[in-house]
Amino acid sequence: MYYILKTILFLKKKGVPYRETWLEGCRKVLDTVVSLQREDGAFGYTYSALEKKVLDWEGFAGCWFVPGLLYLARLTGECSYVEAARKAHEYYRNFVYNLDCWGAPMDTWKAVDQEGNLSFLHGSRLLYEETGEARFLEDMKCSAGYEFLWRYGYPTRPEHPPVKDGWNACGGSVTSVSNPHIHPMGVLADEDLLYLAEVTGDAYYRERALDSAAWMMQTLELYPDKTGYGRYGILSERWCPSDGLVTERYDNGEPYGSWFSYNLWAAANVFEAVLYQLGDVFI
φ, ψ for residue 218 (rounded to 5)? Predict the structure, then answer.
């Protein structure tokens, strides 16, 4: 919902038509989600595909509905979506302030993770833009600090190719405590970090965003000569700054410090971040 609605806003800004069914579908889903919202503001972690019912309430994943609802409010002008987002934001705030965001990606078995906080960062920014309330700017700062706890601020010494030589972990974000590898999703924070630098006048946020940009660009440069497969512009989701999670092997049995895969979402994260830093996207 978040990405479809963000895409619609992008197209509207560019004066490009979009399919009305996109907006209708997102609205139908989000109306259902809001109708099931718990009194304390929580959204579900998983939902039934057969009936209007939350199957599992426990976890941070529902926070991604917050920025989605705020985009929907921009598109429809309906304040009720903002109120539902505010209510949920209040619920998820303590997870971030306690440095205990868990239960966002489904492949970590609800371990504490980096990914879910990205939704809180986006939501905080959109709420600040919507309301101008200082508390949401403070939420952004806290959320940015949580993100920095997952980011390498120094080069590591990986043991295995393709990251052993000519690669730097600095600026890369670890995915979770159960998945000790760097993934490209962290670059999605850079849009908000650059915004923070602008509104606060604190260049530190800009410097950390530029670290991330440098990480993703030099990681792309590994293809295909160092990765041994693929071509420039594709991206795997797994980069091992240490020997944690080095499970992939060359044909001769030697360890491989990445993953012989192409993950479209990983490349899309980079594409989105680069577009924003070029000034082409500001939603």
Answer: -75, -20
Q: What is the dihedral of CA 237, 240, 244, 247, to 10 degrees?
A: 60
Give the percent of the chain with pLDDT over 90.
Answer: 92
The token pair that represents 27 in the structure block = 């609205």
DSSP string, 185-220: GGGGGHHHHHHHHHHH--HHHHHHHHHHHHHHHHHH
- Model pLDDT, residue 278: 66
CB-based contacts of 257, cutoff 8 Å, min separation 6: 158, 159, 160, 161, 162, 163, 164, 239, 240, 243, 246, 248
The residues near 262 (Cβ < 8 Å, ≥ 6 apart) are 230, 234, 235, 236
- 8 Å CB contact between 191 and 273: yes
Decide: residue 163, CB within 10 A, 0-12 exposed, 13-18 middle, 19+ buried.
Answer: buried
Query: Are 212 and 277 in contact, with CB atoms under 8 Å apart?
Result: no
Q: Which two tokens stand for residue 267?
A: 């490349």
Give the pTM: 0.95
Q: Tokens 């041994």 sit at which residue?
A: 228
Max intra-chain CA distance, the chain: 60
Nearest in space to 129 (alpha carbons), one of 47, 188, 73: 73
* Per-residue pLDDT tens digits for 46-63: 999 999 999 999 999 999
